Amino acid sequence: MIEGKYTTQVLISSARLKDTNASNLYQLLRQKISEKEDRYFEIGVDELKDELGLYTTKNKKKFYSYPLFKDLNKLVIKRSIETIKDTTEIKNISVEIIERKQRKATKLRFR
Question: What's this model's pTM, rounded to 2 decimal places?
Answer without folding.
Answer: 0.82
